[in-house]
Design brief:
Shape: globular
Number of helices: 26
Distance between the termini: 41 Å
Number of strands: 6
CATH topology of the largest domain: DNA Cyclobutane Dipyrimidine Photolyase, subunit A, domain 3
CATH superfamily of the largest domain: DNA Cyclobutane Dipyrimidine Photolyase, subunit A, domain 3
Radius of gyration: 25 Å
Structural class: mainly alpha
Number of domains: 4
Helix content: 40-55%
CATH class of the largest domain: Mainly Alpha
Mean pLDDT: 90
Strand content: 5-15%
Strand order of the largest sheet: 5-4-1-2-3-6
């Protein structure tokens, strides 16, 4: 018997392990394991478990409809596999490679040892654009690009049933839909493609105009991140669909081609960078607990104040726009990228809180939590890489830029609903008479700011730059750049040299081949 182990790849289409497993005459069992070890990880929440289970159950329904056999069980993987092996001997195990934090690497090592002991061959297929066992990043772009242009594997039209095992779902229903009430996302492959379709057909024109606004970005952005995180979609599926849409728009008189391409190209570049950050985790599995620049992290000596952490985590800092963002995230499981960056920046520079603790808190709130992206961004927004610019966001500037009239604040901080617009961003500036009139008594019905935001942020910036001047920090920063830094500038230098020599620039390997037009793609594939 062959077993297909679904992990973070909860789909039928573009699923190499599924295709390979059903390529022989043996019985095949599809398997999803609800792992208690994962549930106990500090960065994992009930929201994550419920979202993954909802997608696993959607997948199971599809497998059953096609005639296949699928089991959803709770347990430690080697114990689950042992129990199945006793009922019906396993000859081969199929799965995608998984890039995760240290616990999942150790789990996979245990599974590999179990397979070795039992004479079972474990076939692990590459996942998305992550390349395993690279010594450095120099060839990664080329390897990723080749993978992205390979044909998308079609979903099976039917699946043979197992001759002796039945489909089972023994995962407790207490996990199902827990915490998913306030998200508009439905689980499953079909829903994922529906969001992709609506983005390419109607919502694309609001992408760039709304992407930074915490209120409007919920509709203007693609909303595919949660589906990519659980694997209901593959990156290759998205990349190739984007390219097809970009090509088709030229023949559609009902679409403004310039607007479409401007927005879709911006989104495409972000999809390309997704794999860049997950690749970093592939090479640094301890990013949730250890900085990739430990010398800089040590020099910063962030400790923070306990009361400040709780005010930050609960959205009661006394800074209305920040509190609205945190409360919105806690209620819905999603907020746009700029606000995520601001929230961590405030924690790191303004409140001087340890990044591990604040990063873990945010991770648990995101329905689209992807460890590779999340912890890379936590490092960058906390200023602990040594190779990225200091990004210390002003809450007031973000508030004025993205919620000038205060509507987002009033929605998520309802105790400020009666505050006039001129004071909504800084309610402590209201006179006592105005506070009584509005019913908002700052310090009682809504807290005073926990710190002078501008003063604390500026102090944090100065301390960050001082730490970066340390010679040991500088040396480590160079090593970090060599291992993880973008190859874009190096590529630009090579392009410039080539252009000077030949009068023609070569394609930039930092980008996916799918980011280029048809002629470039054909040339690259020759």
């Amino acid at each position: 018997m062959r077993v297909v182990w679904f992990k973070r790849d909860l789909r039928l289409a573009d699923h190499a392990p599924l295709v390979e497993a059903y390529g022989a005459e043996d019985d095949v069992l599809c398997l999803y394991i609800d792992e208690p070890e994962r549930a106990n990880q500090p960065d994992v929440s009930a929201l994550h478990l419920a979202w993954d289970l909802a997608n696993a159950r959607s997948l199971a329904r599809s497998i059953n409809e096609l005639g296949g056999t699928v089991q959803l069980v709770t347990g430690e993987p080697t114990e689950v596999l042992s129990a199945i092996h006793q009922k019906c001997p396993i000859t081969c195990l199929y799965s995608h490679q998984e890039t995760g934090l240290m616990w999942s690497w150790e789990r996979d090592k245990r599974v590999q040892r179990w397979c070795d002991v039992n004479g079972i061959v474990w076939h692990q297929c590459p996942s998305n654009g992550v390349v395993r066992a690279l010594l450095n990043r120099d060839r990664w772009n080329t390897l990723r690009n080749r993978r992205m242009v390979m044909p998308v594997l079609e979903a099976p039209g039917s699946l043979p049933a197992h001759s002796s095992l039945d489909s089972v779902d023994s995962v407790s229903n207490t996990r199902d839909h827990h915490g998913l009430v306030n998200t508009p996302l439905e689980a499953g492959e079909k829903a994922a493609h529906a969001w992709l379709d609506s983005f390419l057909e109607t919502r694309f024109d609001n992408y760039l105009p709304t992407i930074s606004n915490p209120a409007t970005s919920r509709e203007g952005s693609s909303r595919l991140s949660a589906y990519l995180a659980c694997g209901a979609l593959s990156v290759r599926q998205v990349k190739q669909r984007l390219r097809e849409a970009n090509k088709a728009v030229a023949n559609n008189p009902d679409v403004d081609t310039a607007t479409f391409r401007k927005n879709i190209n911006a989104f495409t570049s972000r999809v390309s960078w997704r794999c860049h950050f997950v690749q970093r985790l592939e090479m640094e599995t301890t990013m949730d607990v250890q900085s990739i620049n430990p010398e800089l992290d040590a020099a910063l000596e962030r400790q923070g104040v306990e009361e400040h952490f709780h005010a930050w985590a609960e959205g009661r800092t006394g800074w209305p726009f920040f509190d609205a963002c945190m409360r919105s995230l806690k209620a819905t499981g999603w907020i746009n990228f700029r606000m995520r960056a601001m929230m961590q920046s405030v924690a790191a520079y303004t409140l001087w809180l340890p990044w591990q603790r604040t990063g873990t808190h945010l991770a648990k709130l995101f329905i689209d939590y992807e460890p590779g992206i999340h912890w890379s961004q936590i490092h960058m927004q906390s200023g602990i890489t040594g190779i990225n610019a200091v990004r210390a966001y002003s809450i007031l500037k973000q508030s004025l830029d993205h919620d000038l009239d205060g509507d987002f604040i009033r929605k998520w901080v309802p105790e400020l609903a009666m505050v006039p617009t001129p004071q909504i961003h800084e309610p402590w500036t209201m006179s006592e008479a105005m506070q009584k009139t509005t019913g908002v008594i700052v310090g009682e019905t809504y807290p005073l700011p926990i710190l002078d935001e501008a003063e604390a942020r500026n102090l944090g910036i100065k301390k960050a730059y001082a730490a970066r001047r340390n010679e040991g920090v500088k040396a480590r920063s160079k090593a970090v750049y060599t291992l993880h830094g973008s190859r874009k500038k190096r590529t630009f230098r090579r392009q410039k040299t080539s252009q000077n020599q030949q009068g023609k620039a070569e394609p930039n390997p930092q980008k996916s081949l799918l980011d280029y037009g048809q002629s470039t793609l054909e040339t690259a594939n020759q």
